[in-house]
Amino acid sequence: MQGTTQSTAPSDAYPPTDRTVPTRSADRASYDRELVHAILDEAYVCHLGFVRDGTPVVLPTLFGRVGETLYVHGSTGSRPLRMTGEADPGLPVCLTVTHVDALVLARSAFHHSINYRSVVVHGIAYDVTDPEEKRTALDALVDHVVAGRSRDSRPANKKELAATAVIRIDLAEVSAKLRTGGVNDEPEDLALPHWAGLVPLRKGYATPVGDPGLAPGTELPGYLSDL
Amino acid sequence: MQGTTQSTAPSDAYPPTDRTVPTRSADRASYDRELVHAILDEAYVCHLGFVRDGTPVVLPTLFGRVGETLYVHGSTGSRPLRMTGEADPGLPVCLTVTHVDALVLARSAFHHSINYRSVVVHGIAYDVTDPEEKRTALDALVDHVVAGRSRDSRPANKKELAATAVIRIDLAEVSAKLRTGGVNDEPEDLALPHWAGLVPLRKGYATPVGDPGLAPGTELPGYLSDL
């Protein structure tokens, strides 16, 4: 209902825009906030795109999420971070995350595919200058690698903070895209003798390998043995 | 030696350019052709960046490699493929592939990282119009999903070929970037009580799931049971 206090709370979905409505396979698109968050949170790296001298650049980078904001960090000398600091009001970026879940082998070459979940974020990257927001962002970046880890490590000191640039990208123009399910062969191909089906990809963790110089008595923390 | 016929053969490394020499961590960069090929071939999707209306777009997509050429395909209606067909002489793109190999947990938040291998390709995407090159490219795309699979599926028919656009990007301006090895903590942090080390990521395949409508007697092919 218009005018109620509820109207300021984020809705359950991102509003679609010209850039986030796909030209094809629109049935695979989703704007669901929870789904977008889950896809983002499961990824270790994103691919950050920006324009330099008129041509596109796509770089893999770590990121963190705090609510509806993504943070990317790096050396103050790195290109996208320096360019963000120099851009006014900010640097147009596209940040994309993809999980490959299964190989989809069809009887026809044409219908080969993969099952995947991706999120594409369009937005403007802004330099984070507020020291408190910068600390929150850096904690989120570490906790994105392993949940709870920021509390079990030495926080950044002044020198490290000064050497680190952080940029923020708000989750506003966002879409997810997914392919799930089985093989979509043409009816006339079903009798062909080629094997068809899914090859699911398995992801997991191998046994953690402690640094040789660990302080005596340092044990593997629970948040790692539970992985 | 200049002037010999050998000089036309590709060298073992891509020549570095302004765009492929990183502004930092230059020791992590490599231009080795074999290494670049191996990183590309191990990836199921790449992230393709291009510029649309002045802003960056990054989309995940399947790809294939034939020697020093990458191929990306899609519906003739998809944006980057349509834009390539309309661009003269072609569409500037950046194609990036990343593997995450391990989480690197340091005693200090600052030195948290990941071990990764990435390849960044800068180039111009050209529409593939030659029918023979298009077929070769489509085979490479299927064989990139599972080696040898193109021979064990129905090839694209005329209608499917007409509905599929293929673009080519030559491997010329290319770099790999890698982080390997252990934790790089500051000497004064080594006695801290925080666990530090690597958490290697494990990747593999689950048991293939056959399509319910497989023709009677269709067995799982060797190239899948060997995965």
From TrEMBL, chains A, B:
Pfam families, per database record: Pyridox_ox_2
Ranges of Polar residues composition bias in the record: 1-10
Domain of life assignment: Bacteria
InterPro entries: Pyridox_Oxase-rel, Split_barrel_FMN-bd
Protein name: Pyridoxamine 5'-phosphate oxidase family protein
Annotated spans, Disordered: 1-27
